[in-house]
Design goal:
320 residues, alpha+beta, 2 domains, ten-stranded antiparallel β-sheet, 10 helices, 10 strands, 36% helix
């Protein structure tokens, strides 16, 4: 299996473009394969990129090889894939669901950050696509995360057709091809408009097309081990989500569908179970154990303890 999704050599004579439109970002767009970041494709597959003058989302126009397959792959950012020319037959397996789609010019796909494909395969005929990574501008969240419209839903949509998205992406392409003469404010406005439109479209997907994503066994193990090792520390959801390269919205949803508990409930339960072990093993004051495991007070600890275990800390310390 090649580490590049789009490995291969460009056919001679395809899309000659000026050097101004072929400035390659130092990192370029990426994939996460087996939990390791990899380039999306080699440079000779990039027809156009957003370049050093573009201030909006990361943009690449790429050529796809005729066929390929990847396993355990996800995106480090929310990604739009807009079909420009040719066709591509896509097969995938994710979260116990299998699907097939034929991508043709004018349709787009959206894959949320962290959505994990067990297998992703394709067969294409002169297929080219514009890839757009929807990230954040400075401290502000992207519309995808700010609205919570996609992380709260399926997080992966194939083959959507929308005239507004097509127009906005074409305006992006023209601006980048011209060397971004209009300025950064225009570039950012186009990018934010695309993200807002994608979020709005994904919010209208029928319920029967939505499938609840879950954490893989490896992801759940990594998060659980981290929680158990740091029970005495503040465990913020942003940190837990970062362990599996997800946004907090997406991670919280996947975690609940996997464990039937919210991350907060799971952490609290683990702290109570650890406290129970300490109560039976040690003679330390109950209040000390409560404070060590992050509870605000002994009374708060006792209330939570009783709700989860059905007994009080003193009863469990006394034993049967």
């Amino acid at each position: 299996m090649t580490p590049h999704l789009l490995a291969g050599v460009a056919a001679p004579g395809e899309h000659e473009v000026s050097s101004a439109t072929r400035r390659i970002d130092a990192r370029g767009l990426e994939l996460i394969i087996d939990e390791r970041r990899q380039p999306l494709c080699p440079r000779n597959r990039v027809v156009m990129d957003s370049g050093r003058f573009w201030r909006g989302y990361r943009f690449e126009w790429i050529r796809a090889p005729s066929r390929g397959m990847l396993t355990r792959v996800s995106m480090p950012e929310h990604r739009v894939v807009f079909a420009v020319s040719g066709t591509c037959h896509v097969r995938y397996r994710a979260y116990l669901h299998e699907g097939r789609h034929r991508l043709r010019p004018g349709v787009f796909c959206f894959v949320a950050r962290g959505y994990s494909f067990e297998q992703l395969a394709w067969r294409s005929d002169r297929f080219e696509a514009i890839m757009l990574d929807i990230t954040n501008f400075g401290p502000d969240s992207s519309p995808i995360d700010a609205f919570g419209r996609t992380d709260a839903l399926l997080d992966m949509y194939m083959g959507i057709e929308d005239a507004r998205i097509a127009t906005l992406i074409d305006l992006m392409r023209r601006e980048i091809e011209a060397g971004c003469p209009t300025g950064g404010v225009y570039d950012e406005a186009l990018s934010l408009a695309v993200a807002s439109r994608v979020a709005s479209l994904c919010a209208t997907i029928p319920n029967e097309q939505r499938r609840a994503p879950t954490l893989s066994s490896k992801q759940l193990e990594r998060v659980t081990q981290h929680i158990c090792k740091h029970l005495s520390q503040e465990l913020r959801i942003e940190r837990l989500a970062a362990l599996v390269s997800m946004s907090p919205f997406h991670f919280a949803r996947c975690f609940k569908h996997t464990t039937a508990m919210t991350p907060h409930h799971f952490v609290t339960r683990q702290r109570v179970l650890r406290a129970r072990e300490l109560l039976m093993e040690q003679k330390r004051p109950i209040g000390d154990i409560a404070m060590e495991l992050g509870f605000a007070s002994q009374s708060h600890f006792s209330d939570v303890y009783r709700r989860i275990t059905g007994s009080t800390p003193r009863q469990d310390r006394a034993g049967p």
